[in-house]
Amino acid sequence: SFDPGLSMSGWNLSIYNLDKKTMFIEDCGMIYPNEEVSLAKNKINNIRYGSRIMTLDQLRNDIRFLMDNYNPDFVVSEDAFFNPTRPLAYCALVQWLTLVSMVLFNEYNHTLFKLAPKIAKQVISGFGGAEKLGVQYAVAHKEDIKFNKFSSNNDNTHSASGSLKNELNSRTFNLSFLSIIISLFDCELFLLI
User: What is the CA 142 to chain-centroid distance, rounded?
Assistant: First the structure.
């Protein structure tokens, strides 16, 4: 599952055990497509094609890397939402979702399931308008979520595998937690169907 963004995206691989009604977080981390593109080695392509095109191209490569290495059964993401304090972010979220949907459809025969952010927060914390700290607390104290491991690839040159630096990295943990919530909701949704 994903918490989308062109600057950074949180992701996690979760396995839901139907017998134990428990979600096991197998791995989670971050991808930084914009950061990778802004490196000096990409300057000519940024000038020629524009940084947004290059960032979307890097995101495509990052999604391919995750799909090829983890081969998930389902892929889910937080849906786009409009934040009046950051109006330009909406366009980036829509581009992220569109590109990932196209990669999943064209290359992996998968659908990107999208979940409204307020619903994800409602499921995990009981309040759709929960703030990040409230969401983190709810995930950390939910007995049916177990953390099996975290990525330890700190300096891998591929941005998709350069990952969760440590559990205390709050930027990473915020986004990874939201992707975990999205996975949890996704599992509950598929159990209801």
Answer: 20
Cα 29 from Cα 5, distance rounded (Å): 13
The 3-state DSSP composition of the chain as helix, strand, coil percent (nearest 5) reads: 50, 15, 35
Q: How far apart are alpha carbons 48 and 15 in whole angstroms?
A: 42
153: CB partners within 8 A, 6+ apart: 29, 161, 162, 163
The residue with tokens 């915020």 is 174
Tens digits of residue pLDDT in 142-173: 777 777 755 444 333 333 333 333 333 333 44
Amino acid type, 175: L
Task: Supply φ then ψ for residue 23, to 5 degrees.
Answer: -100, 130
Q: 170 with 164: CB under 8 angstroms?
A: no
Tokens representing residue 66 in the block: 């995750």
Say what the pTM is: 0.76
pLDDT in tens, 59-112: 999 999 999 999 998 899 989 988 899 898 999 999 999 999 999 999 999 999
What's the rounded Cα separation, in Å, for the pair 101 and 105?
A: 6
> What is the b/e burial string over 49-66, where b = at least 16 CB atoms within 10 angstroms of the residue's CB?
eebeebbbbbbbbbbeeb
Residue 115, classed as helix, strand or coil, is strand
From 101, 106, 82, 77, select the one nearest 92 (Cα to Cα).
Answer: 82
